[in-house]
Structures are given as structure tokens and as C-alpha cells.
Amino acid sequence: MQKIKLVADLHIHTIASGHAYSTYAEVVQVAAQKGLQAIALTDHGPAMPGGPHRYYFGNLFALPEKEQNVEILRGIEANIIDRDGTVDLPDNYLQMLDLVWVGLHIGCLQPAGKSINTEAVLNALANPYVDGIVHPGNPNFSIDDEAVVREVIKRGKVLEINNGSFVMRRGSKTGCLEIARMVRRFDGIVALNSDAHVAANVGCSERALKLAAEAGITSELILNADLERLKAFLKSRGKRRFQKNQDN
Ligand SMILES: [Zn+2]
Ligand SMILES: [Zn+2]
User: Fold this and answer.
1) For the chain, how long is the longest CA-to-CA vector?
2) Cα of 135 to ligand 2 centre, how many Å?
3) Domain boundaries, the chain
């Protein structure tokens, strides 16, 4: 079995999320110690109880693009807040960010049955600033997996295998495995992320790696297994920062 190494962690929370425990500086420190080449700060969107105001996302440009040799991507884990797929940060903010995840979260949206959950996700995917879906496979929010996987791939976006799903969202494994297998069959890509809510967990994606291997996902299908692949993806997604010279 090919040994896969992840070079980036694209789903990390800081104290700005309201229920996470480490600062930006602590997160960067751990990422550098672990030899990661890139991280994405993806605090929860403003609809999350205790989440940051939209100005937090508007001001992420106060951060350097690179620190201690780690590329710092300014992102969000936005919330889908209705069946129309509305996300909780306006487009003029979303368009400034390097990475926009969306997800379904209790506290921001009531689970409403498979067809309405699916409709909400498919509508959110139509937003051009949305880059991918976090932690699909969550039994609290059942979705039509195949419809979502096909739509993500059709739109050149990415699905996440979330390391936290196996602990925080119990019962996710079956759904995650099924989704990972579909991504492979339909020629999509995945990102394997920690969903760290404390700095010590930055870069910890072992469970997600194990599941990916079980689904037959190889390194080439993993967005964050290669820095150039990640940069090319962000460029293809029209991110301002990556429209510049590739040297940056
Ligand atoms: Zn959280
Ligand atoms: Zn989440």
C-alpha cells in the first residue's frame, strides 16, 4: 500500500470560532513543527453560536501569506442556513477568501429530511465562491450522496474526508466510505483534513487517511497531498491570490 503524506491541513479552527481553543500563532507553530507546507484557517461562519462577526473574515488580510515556511490560506467553514443554500457570509466577503468550505451544522440549520438537506447542499454548490463541502456522510444530515458527489465534481469542487467525523459525528463512517468510493469512481478529488479545534490536532488526519485507503483513494486524488496540486486547484477556482505569479 502506497504511503500517503499530507502536505497541508485545510480545515482548522482558532479561538475565533467560539468553541475552539488555540490562537492563530499557536496553530502556525504546530503546523511548522509538523512540517506542513500550508494550512487553511477555516473558522465557523457568523451564524454559528459564538462564531465571529463578518468583519473577522474581512480582515483576514491582516495575516501574512506565509509564516515559518507555512502558506497561510484565509478561509471559512461557512454555514448553509436555508434550503435555498444561502451561506452565512455575503459574496463580497467570500470572494476575498482563499478557500470557502460550506457545511451543515445543527444550531445553524435544522435537519429537514434527505431531500431538503440535499436541495440545500446542491443550491449552496451553485454559489461560485464555494469550493467544497465539509464532512459529508454525517448521519444527522442525510443527503443524496450520489447527487452531491456528482454535482461537486461537475463544478470542479472538492469533497472533504473529515478526520473529526469519526469522533464528533458518530455514525459517519459508513457514509464517508461510500462517498469516498464514489469520488474515486466518478473521478473527483478529496481533501483530508483534521478539523482541529485545538492546535495539537493540526495535521492529525490519520483516521481520514485510513478511510481513504479503504476506499482505494490514491495520492493523486488527494488535493492536499501535493502543494502544487493545491495551488493549481485554487488558481482554477479563480482565487485572487493564485492568479498572480506561481512564485508567490
Ligand atoms: Zn467547530
Ligand atoms: Zn463543521
Assistant:
1) 46
2) 7
3) 8-243
Cα 3 to Cα 209: distance, rounded to the nearest angstrom: 10
Question: How far apart are the C-alpha atoms of 225 and 6, rounded to whole Å?
Answer: 4
Contact 218, 229 (CB under 8 A): no
- The one-digit pLDDT tens for each residue of the chain (248 residues) are 568 999 999 999 999 999 999 999 999 999 999 999 999 999 999 999 999 999 999 999 999 999 999 999 999 999 999 999 999 999 999 999 999 999 999 999 999 999 999 999 999 999 999 999 999 988 899 999 999 999 999 999 999 999 988 777 777 788 899 999 999 999 999 999 999 999 999 999 999 999 999 999 999 999 999 999 999 999 999 999 998 755 54
Cα-to-centroid distance, 56 and ligand 1 (Å): 16
The rounded Å distance from CA 11 to ligand 2 centre is 9
* pTM > 0.85: yes
Superfamily the domain 8-243 falls into: Metal-dependent hydrolases (3.20.20.140)
